[in-house]
Amino acid sequence: RWKGAPSKVFLQEAARQVTFKQGKIVNIDATVIAKAPKIYPFIREMKIRIAEALGVSVQQIGVKATTNETMGFVGREEGIAAMAVASVDLPVRELPSAA
Asked: Span 24-42, mean pLDDT?
């Protein structure tokens, strides 16, 4: 079902779910781990596209790159990896009272 779907679709759905729960995306911090290609020239555009997909400002998005030196499949240039953390502010729900 999702084969070939643009990653933007998944970001938009994540943002929709946060909104549905009356939450707010505070910030996103993403790291791309790759020996090649060098992504530094593309970081600004990546931040813009992520911000647009999530409906937040570019200032709320952090993207950085690093290498794995010669370790693992990334170090052997057999692929790339990425990690991302999202900080989300959700409203506090009242717990049922124990009567």
From this structure: 90
